[in-house]
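G., before I forget:
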Amino acid sequence: MRLNRCWPLLLGLVVAPGACRREEPHAAPLSVATAASLRELVERAAPLFERAHPGTRVQPSFEASSTLARQIAAGAAFDAFLSADAENVERVRDRLDAATVAPFLSNRLALVGRPNLPAPPADPAALRALPGKIAVAGPAVPAGKYARAWMRARGLLSDLEPRLVNTDHVRAALALVESDTVDFAFVYATDARVAKRARLLWTAPPGEDPSIVYVAGAVRGARHPQAAAFVRWLTGPEFQAEARALGFSPPGP
Amino acid sequence: MNAFDLRARYGGFSLEAAASWDAPAAALFGASGSGKTTILEALAGLRPEVAGAVQLRGRRLDDRPARERRVGWVPQDASLFPHLTVRQNLEFAATARPGAPRGIDDATEALELGPLLDRRASALSGGERQRAALARALASRPDFLLLDEPLASIDRPLRVRVLPFLQAIPACLGIPFLLVSHDPLEVQALATHAIVLERGRVVASGSPRSLFPSAALFGSLDALQAENVFEVAVVDTHPGGLRVRTPAGLELEMAALAGFPAPRRVAVRAEEVLLATRPPEGLSAQNVLAGVLEALEPHEGQVLARVRSGGERWTARVTARAAERLGLAPGGPVYLVIKAHAILPAA
Amino acid sequence: MSAADLAGITLLTLRVGLVATLLILVPGVATGWVLARARFPGLSLVRATILLPMVLPPVAVGLFLLELLARSFPVGAALQRLLGEPVLLTWWAAVIASAVMSFPLLVLGAEQGFAAVPRRLEQVAATLGASRARIFLRVTLPLAARAILYGLVFAFARGLGEFGATTLVAGRIPGKTETLALAIYGRIEEFRDRDAALLSLISVLLAFSITALAETCLRGRRR
């Protein structure tokens, strides 16, 4: 009968995932809420922390900082929060261990474009004269906030606003350009470096407003014992060296 | 000239029937499952699985789709369009074919549909639906009518009114018909030519009078549902008739049966039994039986009289008015009067 | 959020839903008719394919549409020629996403409606001499209308609430593709909870209105 044949299959589907899980060295991983733009950096640097702290497994979640702040505010069980701005850290200040909160990176804005653009602009101001949509993270996402602040300061926002396409986070904006769906995107300079097809058109000069500062903090009452140590390690030489290699800068004065 | 030669095989049933006839009023007769509805629908062009030749009124139809055959088909369940009123159903038929629209008044009047015209088709009784469906078929001015058990859902009082209309269709409207029925009396009343089917094959054809009763119909007469059935043995035969006797000793005169083996049972319908309170005189009926009225049962405006006579129990059906006029009362003496022709052989 | 913004988002959502429903009306009813009447090997496969958007996660459908509508793909290129600009991230992309996601609902309703029409009625109509078109318009369609209407209402409601596929192919562009569903999500992401709640309330009111409208329409047909 059809039902008899289904049983082994259903049973297998239920059992298999459990059977596939490897033995864990420790009960729970170190769960880190990480800004999307830190993907490659954290993926490369995490094994260094794990080696220094045997038995610890770093498990990052990459999302927009605003999304992560919301989750933390709702009580999500993260051990640490790596945000692309101070504002989202402020939002969840009462959930964080104040002693651990500190800036740890800085970044610069960049404009990327589709690979086959007929007349690639050298400056965002030139976008005014060009057609095509501009992908940018949503207004609450740090990358989107920074980009909008930069455009507003230069009187470009009102002109370009109708052409802005909001995305959930900065990597989604990059993806739209990489997939040829959209002509331009405002991303971080570090995102442009890991882009596969998108062309870097412009980078904001160092020190230009707005200043982009990443802030981290350990979650109060974090389950993992190494949470505070991890946040401290972010300002240490090991992590900073990896960051430099990918184009990030230290948090600055 | 009408004819068909049809073959089909499906679901364990095989059909191989051929017939031809000229009569304007014809019938397909047989028990349920004999294939008569299949043949009727095949003539209408609705059965692609039935192959063979079809000719109605001299026109070859088997190479045409249903909509081009110009036949009016009235299925057993009327199949009126339930979302339309009776009038709209008729108008659908009247305007279906391209050309000048045809009137619906004749059919409406003849079938007494006036008060029903603006009623929704789904709000009619069985008999009303049948009449409306017939009117609809006529409204499309067909060349030929195919009627599936036309009187089946019409109660007896109404049958009396509709029957003459059906009978008149070929003559007055010039439209010949072929009807399907399992009731030999219906066939006898409406058709001048009957085609008898049994298990998908034509076993006899001819005028109903000559066919019923005949050996070929032996099995079909069970459908008669007669109220009076007796086991008999033949005691005497003479030209034009025979005499049979029941186990209780009652003797009855039957009409002759052409080419028929001696019946072992006979059936008489209750409405064929007359009642008298005095021994009748000067009657042609050959069977006059004295008996006692045991009970009277009113039933749908009629009265069923239960009579014991000659050691047998009889049921006679008369109108309530007749029973009243005669002053019938249980316990009193009655006489049963039955024509020889009313005693039918049954299987 | 101003009342004008609220009205704008609501009207945009209604426009997307209405145009999407209009687009799928004829193909949906026709497909339902074919599924109800046709008989060929592989029919169940065809039906399963048509019902996919109803069964798959909407984002998965969105991903598929993303490929289909990309300007590098024939369909996307053709649409770009038609519209004068790439179709992705435009109002039309939102309409297409809604249309695709709500199509199966209309097809199901239509299929059930047509399947319930007794063949015998169509046969009788044929013997009366009616053309196939006449039979369909005056017998089959009216009798299937109720079920088709149900399918249409569900399709419209589904199109209004579409999120997963829409967010992928149309993005959230205020004034152009920001439907109610996307707007609610966006406000939540931007920590504008009060606005999100307001928009949700509008969605609920919209849903009630649609069901009420459907009930009155269908009650009219009840015999």
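The longest helix of chain C spans residues 3-37. Chain C has a mean pLDDT of 90.

More on Monday.
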